[in-house]
Amino acid sequence: MGELDVDRLTTVIEDFNTIFIRLPAVRRLNFSALSVLHTLDRNGPLRLTDLLATEQLKQPALTSLIAKLEQDGLLERRADPTDGRASLISLTAAGAEIVNSRHAHRVSKLAHLVDQLTPDERAVLASSVDVLHRLTEISREDAE
């Protein structure tokens, strides 16, 4: 097997992401709002300061976005049991439904694409899942 062409890998991932993230919206939300919902779905209740570390927003913009999503019934705040001055932000059932619905749409779309691969291509893709997961773990470790 030859040397990995990281430049080509980057381009292929960018192109794949372009088709993968652009789905018909069940509910119109911008990228930042969807990112917050997905982060909370994956990482559970978080403080605003924890969200600031993962989202590409400044504190005033994130605070405003959280207030809007809370007003829309997609998020809720609860007192942090470890610090009464802070609050934890979590998804409501409606927020979780948006995340789950988007995931289901992606599974359906990707399954349709994967069905068009040859058996050998599907085997290569299957063997890549653990490697892509490991790259995600390494990225999280680097961020800490």
Question: How would you describe what is shown here?
Answer:
The protein has 144 residues and is mostly helical. It has one domain: Orthogonal Bundle (Arc Repressor Mutant, subunit A). It is built from six helices and two strands; from the N terminus they run ααααββαα. A two-stranded antiparallel sheet has the order 1-2. The longest helix is centred in the C-terminal third of the chain and has 25 residues. The mean pLDDT is 90. Pfam families: MarR (PF01047).
The proportion of strand residues reads: 5-15%
Largest sheet: 2 strands, antiparallel
List the total number of helices. Answer: 6
Quaternary state of this entry equals: single chain
CATH top level class name: Mainly Alpha
Uncertain regions spanning at least 5 consecutive residues: none
Instruction: Tell me the span between the first and last alpha carbons.
Output: 33 Å
Helix content: 55-70%
Backbone structural class: mainly alpha
Shape type: globular
The CATH topology turns out to be Arc Repressor Mutant, subunit A
SSE blueprint and pairings:
Layout: H1 6-21, H2 31-43, H3 48-54, H4 59-71, E1 75-80, E2 83-91, H5 93-114, H6 119-143
Antiparallel strand pairs: 1-2
Gist?
The chain is mostly helical and 144 residues long. Helix content is 67%, strand content 10%. This is DNA-binding MarR family transcriptional regulator.
Features:
single chain, 144 residues, mainly alpha, Arc Repressor Mutant, subunit A, two-stranded antiparallel sheet, 6 helices, DNA-binding MarR family transcriptional regulator
